[in-house]
Structure formats: structure tokens, C-alpha cells
Amino acid sequence: MRAGAVQRLLARERQRAVILLLKKRQAKLEAAGIISTEGAERMLTEVRREIEEAVAYAEASPYPEPSDLLKDIYTQEAAR
Fold it and tell me: Lower CB count within 10 Å: N or C terminus of the chain?
């Protein structure tokens, strides 16, 4: 599977997870007066749009240079 296909699959799964979580909790949020049905739908639409934009940006971006692989990676030594 190509890297782009994997990224699209992961993005769809993340989107689905966020959407399923919101839908699962939507009735409780509505009952508590935290969100309306219209508000939940607007939120879902916005989540979908943001994910689609992020995937499009990632797919349009060039792959990083191999020399950048270990740049800006920090770690702390484990306590012994």
C-alpha cells in the first residue's frame, strides 16, 4: 500500500472515530443543554472539513528529505 493511501486511510479512520464519539455522546450533550442538534451537525461538518483539508495539504506536500529524519527529535535519559 502506498504511503498516500495509508495516510488517507488513517485520516478517514480518525475522522470516523471523532464523528462516532460525538454521535455517541450527542444525546447526553443535548439533554444537558451543552449543544443543540444543529450545533452538533455544524461541529461534525467542521470536523470533516478540517480533516479533508489536512489530508489534502499532506498529500500535496513533498516528502521530507532523508537528512531531516532525525532533526528536532529530543529525548530525556531514563532514570536509572
Answer: C
